[in-house]
Amino acid sequence: MTAAKDPDPKLDELRKRGVLHPRPELVVDELFAADEFFDARDALQVKYEMLRRVRIDGQGIARTARDFGYSRPTFYEARAAFDQHGLPGLLPQRKGPRRAHKLSPEIMEFVAELLAEDGALGAAELVERIHKRFALHVHPRSVERALARKKKGS
User: In percent, how much of the chain has pLDDT > 90?
Assistant: First the structure.
């Protein structure tokens, strides 16, 4: 019989919030070896300390990125995000489009005109007409969501 691992609430929380370092075993910076306050599993803390090590301590970027378990491109991304947004910039960003990028104001105006002519048109029919007019593939659910946002904003 195998003993069950003790639950680790911090590990669960880091994972849930998307800030679990993907390879904590690669963090070899002396801070993380010397004091339990520094947790190599916490990607937010690791990235912040990585940036601080370069900016304040003057350590080279290549070595620092390696010592903190990240690549140089990841260092540059973290630095740009931090410079622009501060600590919240180091939090993971939502994947995928941030808005209905295909349904431009021009297309939504076209949809409004179609609905003014025939209010019974469904999303599937609207998608077909959008495709015919603009040669653009849009999912019916995207149209439904855009219409709901427009109705909510009116």
Answer: 76
H/E element holding 123?
Answer: helix 123-134
Instruction: Kindly state the average pLDDT of the residues 94-120.
Output: 84
| Mean pLDDT rounded to a whole number for the chain | 90
Which tokens sit at 71?
Answer: 């690549």
Domain boundaries, the chain: 9-90, 105-153
Q: Give helix then strand counts, H and E, for the chain.
A: 8, 0
What value, to the nearest 5°, has the Cα angle with vertex 95 and ends 154 and 15? 120
Residue 98 is classified by DSSP as: S
For 58, the 3-state DSSP assignment is: coil
Say if residues 19 and 91 touch (Cβ distance below 8 Å): yes
Q: How far apart are CA 92 and CA 43, in angstroms?
A: 10
Per-residue pLDDT tens digits for 64-99? 999 999 999 999 999 999 999 999 999 987 766 666
Length of the chain: 154
